[in-house]
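Handoff note, outgoing to incoming analyst
You'll be picking up this chain. Sequence as last confirmed:
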Amino acid sequence: MTSSNMAAKVQYTNSPDTSPALDLDDKKCVQEVLGTLLYYARAIDSTIVPDIGTITTQQANPTRKTIEAVTQLLNYFAIHPNAIVRYRKSNMILHACGDASYLSVPKGRSRAAGYFYLSDKPIDPNKPPVEHAPPPTHNGAITINAKIKQEVLSSTTEAELAILFHNGREAYPLRTALEELGHPQPPTPILTDNVTVKGIANDDIRQKRSKVIDMRFCTRTIIKITLKCLN
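Most recent structure output, in case you need it:
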């Protein structure tokens, strides 16, 4: 998706790539650049993780359009060479927020994202924050989850619930590591911007036509154990 149509009311995925295929040398160059940049993106500049993920899906059969995207990415690094991650003192409590972009990737796929950071302890870990309560102190990410989902999802709600499920699964080893380091964890708050997903995850609404979601993503089970879905 290009920047020119991000503000459009109706957004479409990019058309299939019909540009010429790259030769073996250019293909190897694309793979080497992506491998190097992925390490840098995971460690420092997480803003480019989605772009690298998109290009990575094409590296097995790269085309002229693929190498143009790689060149644009390298130009970005030439202009912005000094990315910074800032960490602030906190109570070492794991927080997460996530979002999904439904059917924004070719072949009927959706994009998922999750941001995990350490921040303040909730006032009451077993209850969602009260209205107008100050948000937790923002901190640098300890890990980023930015993926293109391979499964074809049936609705925006299912896409949002899927990323909630995957972010909850990502939170488990992080919670374990923090507890073994001596930082006990309350139920981990996971922020979502979808009211329906929040209701399904926290059992605040009655499911009628969303039973199929339970067959693929056992989100409510994860939420009941150690997490808390917020909105």
